[in-house]
Amino acid sequence: MSTPKTSLSSSVPKSRASSPANISDYADLSHPHERDALSEPKQICNVEPLSIKVADGPDGAVAAFLHLPQEYTRGQTEGKTRTAAVLLSGAGGGVVGPSSIYLSMAEKLASLQDGIPVMRLDYRFPARNKYCVADVHSAMKYLEDRYAVARFVLVGWSFGGAPVFTVGGSDKRVVGCATVASQTADTDGIRSLSPTPVLLLHGTGDRTLDPICSRRLYQAYGSMGHRDLQLFDRDDHALTRNAEKAEEMLSRFILKCAGIDIGKKESKFVKETLVGDEERVELMKRGGDLKGEESIE
Hints:
It is a single chain. This protein has helices spanning about 75, 100-110, 130-145, 160-170, 210-220, 245-255, 265-270, 280-285, and strands spanning about 45-55, 60-70, 80-90, 120, 150-155, 175-180, 200-205, 225-230. The chain is α/β, with parallel strands linked by helices. It has an 8-stranded mixed beta sheet with strand order 1-2-4-3-5-6-7-8, with helices on both faces. α2 (about 100-110) crosses α6 (about 245-255).
């Protein structure tokens, strides 16, 4: 059994032979398949597949799925402080997240009565923080320019903690940062993040990135803001044993950062199962989340 690492960042320069994923590589991953099996009828969000321009080189476009509340336009947001969530995967890139949590969570948060835009963002060059940070900045600019979004909650899995804390620690528009099984490399931004709230989730049985990473991030954040560390006993790198609980915690964190309160009926909806346990890993493979050094173990 290999010893868990503290970093999945790559120091190898990006190859000219490699090219960013295209949104067409993720066919049939716009909506969760079980959304039609909801216990109560629900107005489901719209999903836009995107290729967002990134102005830092010749390979300047990153794939994304944007979940939008019904009839959500810039005109509706004028004069309001709107919040969006940007969800980032690990060292292999991808668009469904750990245990396919992102696919389900984005659908729910954008389908609430006071739903918010949620973007599932890929990377052009996964595991290379410099390029991934540029991807995040371009995604934020897209949401700001097109939908007047002024505040952002960033969520990252594994390597995704690096761009989350790099951007979060330097951009005042970020109002919350959450990670699942984050690494510690390239995360110094967390030291300047307080008082912006932080949620850190990690499985104690993680054999890919040592849970000590999240403990160290908790300490690095300091005691001046709101920080929460949740360790899931004997769970793995993708939190497969506690996926629904992790998704609910992330959803409530995002909503709190966005200043949105939900009632009992919508709280029940947030707990609905939109991705079955039997399909979580298969969707991660199809969504590109298990490429490179990423693993569910």
